[in-house]
Every structure is written in structure tokens, then in C-alpha cells.
Amino acid sequence: MFMEGDKRPRWGEARLEEARFREAERRDIPALVALESATFEFHCIDRRHFLRLLESQSVYCLVLESNEGLLGYALVFLRRGKSRARLYSIAIDPRLRGQGAGTLLLRKLMLELAHFGQRRLSLEVRTADEAARRFYDRLGFRPLDSLPGYYDDGADAMRLVTELPERVRASEQAVAS
Ligand SMILES: CC(C)(COP(=O)(O)OP(=O)(O)OC[C@H]1O[C@@H](n2cnc3c(N)ncnc32)[C@H](O)[C@@H]1OP(=O)(O)O)[C@@H](O)C(=O)NCCC(=O)NCCS
After folding, report:
1. Domains and CATH numbers, the chain
2. What is the pTM of this model?
3. Which single residue of 15, 39, 134, 142 could bond 91 by disulfide (Cβ 3.0 to 4.6 Å)?
4. What are the pLDDT digits (tens) for 152-174?
5. Mutation test of ligand 1: which of 87, 127, 135 has the most ligand atoms closer than 8 Å to its C-beta?
């Protein structure tokens, strides 16, 4: 029975403790689609779109999973010959939001991208989405451009950008030389 003062973990805490990162695979598509439809009302990435994305050489998709399944994902486009990657989509299971999982996922992604030799990461966010903007601001993203009427519904966006960790690139260079 639940007693007042109990320190039982919330839904996400237990799962976050056992969570790990890995690159997305085709077998993740049903869980990725479920996460999308639980997250976005419009323009969810569907099964076929995920399949195309995961097969593309210019896409990197990192997932966060626990023993019970996918907790979140982040998908980026890497452009040939360019050192700026673009975050295309990020989502955390709605039951786990606000508990640090998104921060962990994005930090891990930024380290991975730096490891691949990328220097910057950009993304678009709805100008009106203050919660998402706070999330990115805390992770070091700063405004790069305004994109009036960027979304299909006419809403404005901002393009944000952050520098990827220098230290990783430097240690990579030391290893490579
Ligand atoms: C944005 C998102 C990936 C952040 O992951 P998270 O695990 O909730 O984030 P963290 O716990 O590490 O950080 C919490 C911060 O995220 C931001 N945030 C954005 N959307 C949020 C949401 N739906 N619930 C909780 N926090 C949210 C807030 O700034 C929050 O900080 P605050 O509590 O001071 O307001 C996640 O909330 C999500 O999947 N949201 C819906 C999809 C989305 O908005 N994607 C980004 C579109 S650009």
C-alpha cells in the first residue's frame, strides 16, 4: 500500500536507471511509430518514412531504451561535406518527460556527432513552444535565423544552433594523428 512519504520511483525513474543508448535498427520501427503518434498530433513519421530514413546514409538515429522498450529517440541528418548536422526529430515517451531523459539523449547525441567529426548541430523549433526552447537553451542552443511561416499550419519557427563539444574532437584528432 502507498504510504505518505514513500520514496517509490515515478514511472520513468526506474526505467531511466536501466536505460542505455544504441543506434536505431529496422526492428525498432513499430516502437518508433508508436512514440511518434503518442507525441505529435500532425506530421508523424510513419512506418514507411522511418524505413526510408533508417536506410539513408545521411541519417543517424539514436535510441534510448530500457529492458521494457524504447524510451525515446533522436534523429539527425548528416550532410556530405558539411560539418553542421541537423536535428530532424526528437521525442521522449510522454510518461517519462520532464525527468532528464531528453537532456541525456541530446547530450549523448552531441558527443556521438562530435565523434563523427561534426562541428555544429542545428534544429528548427516552433517560436511559440517556450518549453522546447527552454530545453534547447539549457543545452547551449542559440538562435541562428527566424523562419516566418515555416510550418504547414503557418506557425513561425526559429533555427537554433550549438557548437559540438570541442574536447571530443581534439581527443579524436590526437588519436588519429
Ligand atoms: C522536448 C523533449 C524531447 C524533452 O525531453 P524531456 O525528457 O521531457 O526533457 P528533460 O526532462 O531533459 O528536460 C525538461 C525540459 O524539457 C522541456 N520540455 C519541452 N517539452 C516538454 C514536455 N512535453 N514535458 C516536459 N518537459 C518538456 C522543458 O523545458 C523542461 O524544462 P522545465 O521543466 O524547466 O520546463 C520531450 O519533452 C518531448 O518528447 N516532447 C514532445 C516532442 C517535442 O516537443 N519535441 C521537440 C520539438 S522541437
Report:
1. 12-176 (3.40.630.30)
2. 0.89
3. 39
4. 899 999 999 999 987 555 555 55
5. 135
